[in-house]
Amino acid sequence: MDTQESQPKLYGSVLIKAKEIMDYLLMQPKSPTLAELSRGLNSSKSTTLKILKTMEHLGFVRREEETKRYVLGTQLIPYATKAISSFDIANVAQPYLEKLRDETGETINLGIPVNQRIVLVSKLESSNSIRLQSTIGGSMNMYSSAMGKAVLATYSADQLKRFLDTTDLRPVTQNTITNQNELRHDLKLIQEVGVAVDNEENEPEAFCLGAVLKKDTQLYGAFSISTPKYRMTPERRAGFIRMLLNTQHEIQEAI
Fold first, then answer.
1. Fewest 10 Å CB contacts: which of 22, 135, 151, 201?
2. Is 0.85 surpassed by the pTM of this model?
3. How distant, in Å, are the alpha carbons of 55, 69, 115, 182, 237 from that of 65?
4. Do 171 and 219 fall within a single domain?
5. How far is CA 46 from the centre of its chain?
């Protein structure tokens, strides 16, 4: 396939350069000077300054007078607020979750955290899957589900403490983790691997692997692969983990 034909023709090179400037400002731990911006973007000072002056006029960047450093402008805040409020993670994730369902032949779930529980917003069942108890709009415990534990693993120490102080770890099955220290240990393993495991902890005979959907500092939700326990061989588990992490990467890139 001709690479040029497969790529859309873009107009407005200045817009692209402005986006590169905003991306650079977003990623830097310290606000850069004009020289640092020019060097970091491999662009001449004169070109970079012209674009910065236009962006400053629009309120997209701001130059600190004392330090001569550039920061993102407050004019971007209402755009970000509107984008977040109108964002639907289910629509963005749908094609990737359908692909994951077809690859695994198992049920794929998508959930969001609401009031210290996970609310199921999408469920894609395969013809090979058994029917699980979860229903769209229903909720499940954070501490007993793969999606919930994946979310808990992103919490700060203070957030996790507040969750544990206000949540009674009641058993859902005989495998549910009900000890705070054991749960903390499980969450550390999830942080290391990037995948949460629900081994018959939320529903008997059901095995789930879950991962979060997070970009920058924004948590959008989590998704999981659910399968009957008897079908989860070590080989399938290793393959499912790879597919889960690949799907996570694809969705986060699309956000």
1. 135
2. no
3. 16, 8, 43, 52, 56
4. yes
5. 38
